[in-house]
Design brief:
150 residues, alpha+beta, 17% strand, three-stranded antiparallel sheet
């Protein structure tokens, strides 16, 4: 159970501070927000517009010219925690790379939980054939689900 807990704990610590610097009506603005990326991924299945998150948390109307001006500037990331750090280069986030890695880590944690609960497997990494079989079953279910959208 220790391996499963440590895998989930590692996965559940991805956070960043996302901020934007821009000028609007001659004033400098630097809105930012701390984002728990794991919670956001769990809730939405991906990373929605971070601009809208920053705007909402800083009282910027999403239907304003100020918001449009803010969107022209790049979002910068700091105070990075977790494996998301591997996907931030020069202050910019490789969103697709992070999302893909997060989903892979989530799947691995979910499969390890199933193997432990159903088969008593303490460390799925020590049984790569079982891990592969569980992943194949998962992918088969995904394909079947996509082809039969009832």
């Amino acid at each position: 159970m220790l391996v499963l807990q440590s895998m989930v704990e590692v996965m559940m610590k991805n956070s960043v501070v996302a901020g934007v610097e821009f000028y609007y009506k001659g004033e400098r603005y630097t809105p930012s927000v701390r984002i728990d990326l794991d919670r956001l991924m769990e809730q939405t299945g991906g990373l929605p517009s971070l601009y809208s998150l920053i705007a909402r948390e800083n009282g910027i109307d999403l239907y304003s010219y100020q918001y449009e001006v803010m969107q022209v500037e790049d979002i910068r990331f700091s105070e990075v925690e977790g494996f998301v750090a591997d996907f931030i280069h020069n202050g910019e986030l490789d969103v697709q790379g992070f999302v893909d890695k997060w989903r892979d880590e989530k799947l691995a944690a979910d499969l390890a939980a199933i193997a432990q609960r159903c088969m008593g497997v303490e460390d799925l990494a020590q049984q790569p054939k079982l891990a592969d079989a569980l992943k194949e079953a998962y992918l088969l279910g995904q394909r079947a689900s996509a082809s039969n959208p009832d």
